[in-house]
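Give me structure tokens for this 295-residue protein.
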Amino acid sequence: DFCLSRGLGDVYKRQPEHTVDYSPEAATPQGGSGAGDMSVSGCGWAVEDRGQYQRLTQGTEAKANVLLGQLQALLRMATQESTRNTSRGRLNARKLFRTGFDDDRVFKKSSRRILPAAAVTSLVDLSGSMKMGGGNLLDTALQVQALLMKAMATIGNPMEIAGFGGKKGNVLTFAKAFDEHVKAAQNRLGGMVAESGGGTPLLEAITHASFRLAEREETKKVMFIITDGEPNEPEQVREVLDALIADGVHVYTFLIGDASGGEPAYLRGLNVVSVPHIDDLSASALSVIKQSCMG
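Here you go.
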């Protein structure tokens, strides 16, 4: 059984300084502009910025097409139809010769293996450190997110996208709800550029997003974290991540920027993909998506 909310609740009770309501009942966005007005205290929706989205993705179309083409090939293999001859089903004209040998297997029956759907939550670091060096880290993070968003749409997995650490002080700034179409969220992803510039409240972001993820009906749960390094309260973050993994959530962190100094201590032993630049992503992203969402 998926007991995520119970496990995280035990961890979170030891953090009394946080005041946002993280109960599942409070963690549901309401209707409104495209995705809706956020009724949860400390959360909001990113503004739409089509120009920024076009700028972010302008140089990544070729990479996206390669990645999506590879995913489609994997999907065809994973859902490949197999045909067997039976005494019932649809007539197979090529096997009619068998009637002359008292063999009634002249019908064909097809079967198809369908991949189980996974619910995917993706959290993007919008903290001030992502804007250092002219904002290149933030650009790379959002480019990674754009590719992952298209990949999940190709597979057919519902994905929720939210930023954390924005300058408005929101726990989460949503760009996409689980069941929204990709096109409805693209401009909000561009709008995250203007939202950036706060701290790194990853503990609060994971806790809140995890309750939302736990409510999904999909058996498989996946969480992507896209960040440049140390969050606030790294030891508590690790405790929450361990609780997630123990509850069966597949957690992958995309570490943006120069990782020559090694990965942060709170991520040691976990699934980490180093992304110094968007050009370094393709093979790693395909491997992560195959492991987490197509296994």
